[in-house]
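Handout, page 2. Input:
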Amino acid sequence: MLDITFDAPTHVYRLNGARVPSVTQLLRPLIDLSGIPRDVLEAKRDLGQRIHAACHYLSENDLDPSSVEADVEPYLDGFARFLRETRARIVANEQIVYSAQWGYAGQLDLIVEIERTRWLLDIKSCVAVPMSAGPQTAGYHRALGDPAVTRRGALRLTPDGRYVLEPLDDPNDWACFLAALTLHRFKESHK
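Output:
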């Protein structure tokens, strides 16, 4: 039996005690944050974590509305609007996945069913979906290994309470993810 654990503060996944690379870690070369001041990055990371937590609790029907902070509220409104308007049925929420074939792990945000189609969604609270989102969801999708999930997308929540569901269907997404995994393994073998 596989024992996958995740330590949230360090963002480290372990399989039976041994560290395995994460989807996020593997895709770092695609994300250049060097021009953004550290305090701005930290504030955005904090906001993103609180948005994810609120969406998670709403998805689980376990949200205390009085716990939602003012800066999170419009994003949560967009998420609630998405669920209501698309009639999305939540199939999985914050699910840890592991690829035994490729040796990596991650935690996908959502799997929803909309009009009999299952989507793997990553929640984003940024102005534009980053180029890493396609390979990210491709990595989650491959590790999930569920043929019932046929679509991938980014659910972009906006600070004005709206949402945009952006399909991620570039046929090169998996190849890009696999290239990142190969680069990671190459670098690890030369340490």
